[in-house]
Structures are given as structure tokens and as C-alpha cells.
Amino acid sequence: MGKNCAIIVAGGKGTRMGKGINKLFLKIKDKPLLAYTLEAFEKNQYIDSIILVSAKNEMEYCRSEIVLKYSISKVKKIVCGGENRQQSVLNGLNAIKESDIVLIHDGARPFVSHKIICNGIKYANMYGACACGVKPKDTIKVKNDVGFSDYTLDRNKLFCVQTPQSFKRDIIISAHKDIMNKDITVTDDTMVAEICGYNVFLYEGSYTNIKVTTPDDLLLGERILRDFNYLDV
After folding, report:
1. CA gap 13, 90 in Å, rounded
2. How far is 192 from 124, CA to CA, in rounded Å?
3. At what angle do helices 114-127 and 33-42 cross, to 10 degrees?
4. Banded pLDDT at 233 (limits 50, 70, 90)
5. Residue 119's pLDDT band (cuts 50, 70, 90)
6. Which of 18, 114, 148, 180 gives a 20 to 30 Å CA spacing to 229?
7. Would the pTM count as exceeding 0.90?
8. Which CATH class is domain 4-227?
9. Cβ atoms of residues 129 and 199 within 8 Å
């Protein structure tokens, strides 16, 4: 069986949280958000290693106050992030020594389940590239330049992409290097694969697999955590 590595991207500024510190260090029930995220991959039997990507000035804090304090033994390296998420992911990819499948995950998604992680590995092996997500609950409209509704999108064809986004290692490394050389900016890793001609399989995520971005998300996270079990979702 192949090796599976998770890259956890934890170097964002989190300005929308308005707390003055990295939002991943904020706590729910006395534990940092980043610790919950790392524990989800630590406890998954199919994850062999974790690469944590951090801001340069937060690397030691991540090591001492997160990785060591919460005994995240699968973290093999903490690497310095880049100027943007795209560069940070590539730095993480370059730090992998041995892996067949790579799962790239936002550090700010602490409620990812074992089922989502396992399906990411399964579908990446089958299709080369995949991402989890959910159907939007709301009707989505396109707004014109003067503030009026232009038209309404077909909700049945829309998909709110989450992480992890999972890939065969060779595919995602070569794709990232290719777009970096072409100076193309992307917002997530499925775009990287798509731009380079790869089809991305989309599979079911979870509405509890939220990205904690605002203070309201912290309150929602507390409610999710009351009933959350990595194995059940």
C-alpha cells in the first residue's frame, strides 16, 4: 500500500477574525484550532506523515505549543510558508520525502472527518486529483456592476469546494511548478490541476467541515464540537 502525506497550511493572517493573532492559535474548549486539525490527521490510520506549513515567525510556537504539547507525532517537518498560499503549498510539497498521495488541507478546517480523509485518499488513487465539498444551500445569483441581479445560477450544478484536496504526488508537484513558472495565480489546488489539464473528481464533504474565518465561526465551531466525532461524520 502507498504512503500518504498531509500538508497542513497554517500560515494565513486571519485578518477577518480581528483578534490580532493567527486565528489558528485561538482556542475552542481550551485547545487551539490548529491542534484539532492536526489531530484529525494524526488519528487517521492511513496518514503516514504530516508537513506543517507555518509563517516564519510562528514556526517555533507551532513546534512547542502545538506539535509537542499535543503529541502530534506524525508531523515530520514544519516548513516556512511563502508570500501566498500557492508558494506555501509548493514549499510543503518540496519538503515531502516519501509519499504517493498528498492531501492538502486548510489549518482552519478543524472538523474534518476520517471518512472525508479516507475518501480523499481513495479517489486520488483512482482519478489522480479530487476534492471534497458540498452543494450550496442558498440560491446563488450573479450581481452586475451597478448592484442588480444579472442572472441566477443552477444550484444543482454548483459545488462549494472544501479541503482536503488530494492528489497523486507527481501530478500536483509538477502542476504547481508549471504554473509557478508561468506566473499564474490560483486560489486553490484544484485550479492548479485543472489549469494543467487534469480532471478533478468531486466527492461529498460535510457541512460541519467549516473553515473558521470570522468570530461567528468560532461560536459555530463550539456547537459542532459538542457532538463531533472524527469517526462518525
Report:
1. 18
2. 15
3. 60
4. very low
5. very high
6. 18
7. yes
8. alpha beta
9. yes
